[in-house]
UniProtKB/TrEMBL annotation:
Name of the featured protein: tRNA-binding protein
NCBIfam families linked to this entry: chap_CsaA, PRK10089.1-3, PRK10089.1-4
Record GO terms (molecular function): tRNA binding
Domain TRNA-binding: 8-111
Keywords: RNA-binding, tRNA-binding
Superkingdom classification of source: Bacteria
Origin species: Mucilaginibacter pineti
Amino acid sequence: METITWHDFEQVELRVGTILEATDFPGARKPAYKLRVDFGEFGIKWSSAQVTKHYTLDELPGRQIVGVINFPKKQIANFMSEFLVTGFADANGDIVLTAIDKPVPNGSKLI
């Protein structure tokens, strides 16, 4: 494993946001949802997430997640992703969202 410096870590904007909306993403290569997320002072941003195995569209709105908001935008099919949704692969390789266990203000930075 390669080590990084504290300065390297500080440059990654890992921020908390609340999912406002989740919709199907039929154009994605792998099953995914489109997520609209409120990052407080950093605005409302869209991304896609391959989380269809563990989450339904109805249970995602209102959930706080962690995203990287300072990557460049990325074209995914006919959709522009504005941040990276973070998560972990389970034993089957299906993604479980990175989440927090108590509410914090949208836009809060992981420290």
